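chain below, 155 aa
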Amino acid sequence: MIKTITAPESYENLEGKFIFLAGTIDNGESEDWQAEVSKYAEGLETTENVYILNPRRNDWNPNATEKDIEDQIKWELGALKRSEVIIMNILESSKSPISLLEMGLFGKDNPGFYVFCGPGFYRYTNVRVTAEEFGIKHYSDYTTDDIKKLIKLIV
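prediction:
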């Protein structure tokens, strides 16, 4: 069974494999690649419980209160810590400062960390060199279908 858990849903009492979808959200203004990948993953067959942790909230308010922002950050950090696999997709048109922070916090020496980031991203060289230096699997020429293929291999 593969199920998507979307912020702020609880994942605390669940047992199984956890995959976190990190990367560009841009306050809800970017392409919703997370929904496409999650929908695909839920159609896959598996013998174990797999949970896709999606930080992108359908009800996110760009004018959120400090408390709402803090709750979201805590949900994401907890989900990142809980996940065996982190798939990060940094869209070329974005700034994605939080993604860069998360890559620094969770990518180093993590065999389950994958970053998708093309050469059009304004900090591409930073991402590429950091990935090389710390053994992060980096894909620079890709589509959302490539992320789906990776999910299929992982589950």
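The two ends are 10 Å apart (CA to CA). Strands lie at 2-6, 17-23, 50-54, 85-90, 113-117, 137-139.
thats it, cya
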